[in-house]
Protein 1
Amino acid sequence: MGTLLGFDYGTRKIGVAVGQTLTGTATPLETLQLVNHKPDWARIGQLIKEWQPQALVVGLPLDVDDSETDATQPALRFSRQLEGRYRLKVYLADERFTSFEARDRLGHKARRIEDYDAVAAKLILETWLNEQ
């Protein structure tokens, strides 16, 4: 398939990562702040133009018992908006515990709290790649 962009959607910020289906790996890119309570569509558009992904992957927040959380519907709405705006296939990947794992992996190495979101996006993307 080629290049993919992964997103860890949150109500205040969105972590972004890029990955390759060939290698099955991903790299954290950046964390975007929401603009007026909405995704930074201009920056997302720039990232899509720059990386030219074949598809997008959005983390789906679920509870440990597979039920929805308060964050599930906003993430689903974000995934539909991505698909509609950019006409790219959007896949969903289970994102349970990715934020915790990102904090574990970075520990005190994170320069800013936002670094965790980009690493969480990397983990979401790698989860999806490993399941394919």
Protein 2
Amino acid sequence: MKKFLVIVVILCLMLSISACQTDSNKFYDFLNGIVQNAGNTQITEQHDLIGNRVLDKDAYTGRYNAYCEGNTGRDVIFGGGSIESKKLHVYGIIHTNTGKATVRIRLNEDIKELSVKEDGSFETHLSLNSGGNYIMMDYEDFNGEIELRSEYEID
């Protein structure tokens, strides 16, 4: 994925050099659109989700609920590719009967798991740099309920 994005960026830069009269805002929007389309291929399709996702403003924000009975797998819920930086507030609760459910955040190549409090709640503030950034749920024979929200932080 990273190599593909690098090749796309190089091709776009070559195009911009050869077309000096191109409006820089149009070029920026064009480049960002290419990166977004490439990044959206990593998000789990609605019909393949273990839970249910409702998007808000874009693929980075919304709510996700899952009622699981022994599910195993991964939902890539929110995120995508972008050349813009973004700030998100991610929070929710995991009600576990049996098994395990883990919230994972992928910031380009770095992956971290969110810690969950004793009551099942979790919360984090994310500063997303350009590239591919994703919010995921991993399930291992999970019985229980998940509620997850992702919102843009207000400056």
Protein 3
Amino acid sequence: MFAIIKSGAKQYKVSAGDRVVVEKLLPPQGESIEFKDVLLISDGATVHVGRPVVENAVVSGVSEGNEKQEKLYPLKKKRRKNYRRRIGHRQTMSAVRITEIKV
């Protein structure tokens, strides 16, 4: 059984037991999280497609804490002006262990 959930502006395909890294969420480590924006659920035989979300469907998980992504170096440049700026950025992410998918 798998589900497609929406968290932030991105969509993730998850199953029970998966570890998913999503954009930063507020609950601290060890607390439960529920994703109510479930776009699709499939158990192999049947498929429930939401318009836009599947009603009464919930994907629950447990927070495993926050972490940071690798550092990105966006570059700003103006040609022929000798102007270059390189700034580092690390996005904060939250790790979630998916425990259950309910329809």
Protein 4
Amino acid sequence: MRDVIATKDAPQAIGPYSQAIRASGFVFVSGQVAIDPSTQQVISGDVAAQTDRVLKNLSAILKAAGSGLEKVVRSTVFLKNMGDFAAMNEVYGRYFSTAPPTRSTVEVARLPKDVLVEVDVIALA
């Protein structure tokens, strides 16, 4: 069984991908950036503000899949500048304060729409 997950409470896919796929007891969520779903525009602000928007988007998609941030088992954080790690991590820690998931954080040369941070997750369905 493979179910495509889509919600208007998160940014719409802007290419040939799904917001998430639910399969084999897991939810695989595509990387999310700091786009406000009501405007489909990147929000203004620093990496902390962008991280907050990204995690709200991930939460909305997981909710639509019948899951939630508390069920995330794995995340990958992509940062434009590793110097932003502490600010990103402080916001991230507010969303994953108890039994946080495994995580990798990498610095990348460029992200979609020139955002500062992107996060993808895998969660239990």
